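Risk register update: the risk of archive-format incompatibility is retired. Evidence:
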Amino acid sequence: MSWIRENTLNWIQLLLIKILRTGHIPKHVAFIMDGNRRYASKNGMEKVDGHAKGFDKFAETLQWCRDFGIEEVTFYAFSIENFKRQQEEVNGLLNLAQQKFQRLLDEKDKTRKHGLRIRIIGNLSLLPQKIQELIAESMIFTKEHNKVFLNIAFAYTSRDEITHAIKDVIEGIENGDIFPEDIDENLISNSLYTHESPNPDLLIRTSGEVRFSDFLMWQVSNTCVYFTNVLWPEFNLWEFLNAIFYYQRCYSDIQKVMKMQNTKPMIQNSRQSTYTDNLHHKRETILERIYLSTI
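Archived output:
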């Protein structure tokens, strides 16, 4: 299935979206797509087929987000912890990912038309070389697109993300690029994989599990969280509408908390700005090197 689907909603569904859009719509929605394996077991399928169904739902949900005018979406696709599963399942997941990233590159015209920018957040060094190459090409090809931002957490955990950010900061201090007194929340935030993204306004988790599974732990301190019992491949528009409505009910409370905290954007000093600019350039150079190795 294509990453970008055409609108297939009926007039009643479109009307409900239009009504909800009169309220406050989250700018950034994150998803923990849980329940693929249980769906496969429930329906007598192979696990990899359950994950394939999960990708179909991912593409459909991305279209719903576009229908709502949601600017940024983040999906938790593959945790570092998933490498501990049976090798057959891990291989099936990685093969499926390779197929889907190749499909994305085969549809460059469609991706360009819809202005979809792809950002993969995670420890790419843990992935097979071929998947690294496809990811690098996908990110480089779409880096100038700016209509919809799609982040995919792949080979990701929040602990790993924060650990790498801290290692980068330590290296910056050892090299004299920044000083210990430059370390603050803003510096850490700008050293994370998600430095280009606002924090999620709404986080949705399926399958009835009420936990974060080490996903965006730094970023979700003021995020509205919606848990649903449905398995990810069974997630439907009505559940999504419920989640958006739930967010709208939470919105005023979230705003009150933010006002009580009196949070103000932190401004980087010149050393911090230079350091983070160089860090991001270094990461982009690594991506370009991976991409150029395929040409």
